[in-house]
Amino acid sequence: MESLATKLVMALFIPGILVVFFTRVTFHQLVGLVLTIALIAASVYAGYTHNWLLYAADALSLTVGFWIANRMVANSHRQSNENLHE
Which of 23, 44, 73, 77 is most buried as measured by Cβ atoms within 10 A of its Cβ? Predict the structure, then answer.
């Protein structure tokens, strides 16, 4: 059985990484966020997450991942616009 510390560390990093990954694959940050929330909801439904501290860590990681994905998409759009004007 995993300890709370292991689950907490995973909750701090995995959702944010998934948001960035799904955003990179779909090229849309809201789709990445929704897919990650669906995965978290499925894990809660299956009983893997049962502590409010883990919910808060997931939410924090989702927020940071969405912020990074938003910057990544904006930077990508900015670079493609600069390439068009050259």
Answer: 23
